[in-house]
Amino acid sequence: MLDREGYRPNVGIILANAKGEVFWGKRIREHSWQFPQGGIKHGETPEQAMYRELEEEIGLRREHVKLVGRTRDWLRYEVPENWIKREWRGSYRGQKQIWFLLKLVGRDTDISLRASTHPEFDAWRWHEYWVPLDAVIEFKRDVYTRALTELSRYLTRKPEHTRYLRQHTRAPLRNFNESFGEPYPDAPDANRGGHKAGPH
Fold it and tell me: Which domains does the chain have, with CATH numbers?
């Protein structure tokens, strides 16, 4: 499903633990790391797609997380032509994403990279909220920076992220509760309820 401009609607997920560290997954059989993400199916809201992708990619259900915030609007990135499947060249440009910030209220052992028959990751780790993005595929780095920056408004203690991303000099967050503010007003309680790119 593409919009008129050739972008596929998509969601991105930044999952944080009680220490304020965020989940990074290593793409299966690749040397790149990324946040969980996936397409929005016809008839789904971004939030519904987020919970589905969360379970499919890392095995977490609604009761394992608390929804803290989301980006106000779509964040877009373009996929280089050599990364696009031949049959989609000329129509597919890239992804437009709504990003969500979640807090893990379950345990690390609730995370499973084999929750679906088509796993995205073969390893995972926790890392500081602000990290160098060298391990992220190059054409996604800008949207990662924008998502992390926008969602950092839920941090009660604002880091000097721009300086850190340039110089790699930021100290880690001490814990989630002192670092993150209240969930955004519209957030419902979570307990209620190298591949070639292409639009499917």
Answer: 7-179 (3.90.79.10)
